[in-house]
Amino acid sequence: MNEVKTPKKPLLYYYSIVLLLLILFNFLAMPRLAERQVKEVDYGTFMTMAENKEIGQVEVQESENRIVFTNKDNTVVYKTGMMPDPDLTSRLYASGAQFEGEIIEQADPLVSVLVSWILPIVIFVVLGNYLTKRMMKNAGGPNSMMFGMGKSNAKIYVKSSEGIKFSDVAGEDEAKENLAEIVEYLHDPSKYREIGASMPKGILLVGPPGTGKTMLAKAVAGEANVPFFSMSGSEFVEMFVGMGASKVRDLFKQAKEKAPCIVFIDEIDAIGKKRDGQLGGNDEREQTLNQLLTEMDGFEDNTGVIILAATNRPESLDPALTRPGRFDRRVPVELPDLAGREAILRVHAKKIKVSDDVDWNKIARMASGASGAELANIVNEAALRAVRDGRRFATQADLEESIEVVIAGYQKKNAILTDKEKVIVAYHEIGHALVAALQTHSAPVQKITIVPRTSGALGYTMQVDEGNHYLMSQEELENKIATLTGGRAAEELIFKSASTGASNDIEQATKLARAMITRYGMSKEFDMVAMETVTNQYLGGDTSLACSAETQTQIDRQVVDLVKTQHQKALQILTDNRKKLDELAKYLYEKETITGDEFMKILNQQ
Ligand code: ADP
The pTM is what? Predict the structure, then answer.
């Protein structure tokens, strides 16, 4: 879509430039213009000229301590310093010099004031006027305030044929279905008006970052072929109290003029946070929110202005914002499932050249948990890699490598692991893979590598889910914990000591075990009582405990027990398969990267 931005530079900027020029002009140029060029000579020359009767006019400027004189034809002006000379006047008389008139004409004071001050001010005002008019024209009306203050700065996407359409947003079928109704309404509001139905004024798109919320909002505007005003919540909040509210007013005013249209407010939690009434609260933010609420109440139903807002922290929004009549419809935009991921990859693959034999389904399976933005990034990374290697198109290998880049960072080319470290890392990774593979329910291993990555990982085991997983059984979760402890278990078994390499595994295993006990009701003691609630569903899933101190102690003990049991299970699996562990670790140590197929082949060899 064509984006029309209002000019950013305030008028103040132009005014200060003109003022600066004015000052420079007065200090540097004016003195030179005012004074005629004068030749400086010594007193001896003056005396000789006087004696030779070569002086035309003369002026003794005692205050300046100088004598200014001309030659006989008055064509050249000379000046010299004064000397204590009592006979000066008589000598000058004798030379026939004339004493009348000013030789260096002081510019007429009126003219000088005119030239140095009035004229520039006139230029300054005319220029200022011209610029103001031009800016107003761009800003869309004479009522926009000076210096851009209190203006909404909303980016306006004008109708255009190549705008984003629903077909550009892959997956997210439920969200699209939900929004299709809005498109329908924007096409023909009268249909709804006739029957008396009113469209929701505000629609809240909620979901994790990078799942295409902004894209969906733009697609609604593209499909409905209406103007699209876009602004981020944080742009409203200004340093001065009241500025944000005035921006909200301006935005809605513009929107009403352009109706039917869509107003999109990204990251609405920046202004829409709960007003908690604490001392020292953010006045500016609260005023902005109040203004937004007032504006939403203010316009009647069916005016044709639809407000879409996106957030990844719906739980932090002020309840007043989500009540019916304001943002009363909520459209979840979740992370894509397997089919969604494949579709997104294919959409983005259209923008680059790829070889025909790429298995998109496999890439989508490998990238489980990736958001739309990450998938777009993966495709782009693959194209960059192809260019780096001097190829004309991206291949399956490029895509697979770029998944790893996005997940684990680039390969560290010159990271030097000592031999001992390399052996430990090899055993660690095979430990994970072996425990995963030998527990029937674990996902198959895709790839194991011990090439260090820029993220700090010294090696990793990539597992691939075969399909979508919406539910996980207790057994599957336990197996997952066992797999996570498998790396450390292998180190203990072989080297009889622990290393720091397992810190991330420990973190993940603990998190899983904790969730099983406090949230999934998978412990005998607590039955189906929630001990923790998720407070931040889309951003990392922070939780807050809701139980007594004694219960917390019990939870901690149970978490330890659970992880311990799984750790023992992993140790047992590896002890039972010690031969395979050695064989596979040696193979990995030599090859550094092995595929899941190679791994399974060795594992299944008798
Ligand atoms: P959000 O607003 O949810 O944080 P965006 O809409 O800004 O995410 O998406 C960021 C980028 O990710 C988009 O520009 C697009 O390239 C890609 N993307 C995300 N979701 C999708 C999708 N469903 N289909 C195609 N591309 C997507």
Answer: 0.65
